[in-house]
């Protein structure tokens, strides 16, 4: 996302507990936003003359307590800080498709679908999104929630694709990579497409909206794994695949309707999945880096 804003001529201040692993020439602030005093946080944002905040924190973490800290307390702390600043700051909240809860196979979730998350992750992400929407209705911030599907592409080394990538790097004929694939279909999006959606959401007149961001396709995870194995180019025998029932926290089907994103943001995905998976592999190689979004 930093690269997308920079390419658009917008200076960026990155803030996180730890500096990101990729090289960056941008300003960086070491900050635990969930624990920071809201007044102090407001002062830091004011000093940096921030007019847009993108909350891309969080991910699958363990336990109710940690999910609450990362996905709810941090958002509430950030909202309290933004409320202290003059004017209404645009806040782009990166939400999750898992806020909807399990989706029936064959369906595409629209933003009007009542959310019924069942995991601690989904419940806490929904609570954070609802906090942003409440603050927007009361005039404290100028917030929008992007409900994002599973991610792939350069730097998106999380979830089952990230685990498979790491095993493929270590695979040899003597110690083959053993990869398990379930009969699941999920909506996957390249991280660069997410970055372009966030860039649009930073300035579009979409305050108070929930907007799905995905490809609008439910792709077999076995196909994605095949693409990754092909990109890795490991010799025959260095990779062993087996099938297993779906037991992940993501369920066996995710797909979102992206019509609102097209209408409200003028956005559609541009990176196809074979290119995304190949770039994901190449970016993980020290001798063939790909620019992070």
Please give a structural write-up:
It is a single chain. 37% of the residues lie in helices and 18% in strands. The strands form five sheets. Strands 3-4-5-10 form a four-stranded parallel beta sheet, sandwiched between helices. The protein has a two-stranded parallel ribbon with strand order 1-2. α3 links the parallel β3 (52-55) and β4 (90-96). It is built from nine helices and twelve strands. It is of the alpha/beta class and 293 residues long. The longest helix has 20 residues, at 63-82. α2 (38-47) packs across α3, α3 (63-82) runs parallel beside α4 (120-137) and α7 crosses α9.
List keywords for this structure.
293 residues; alpha/beta; 4-stranded parallel beta sheet; 12 strands
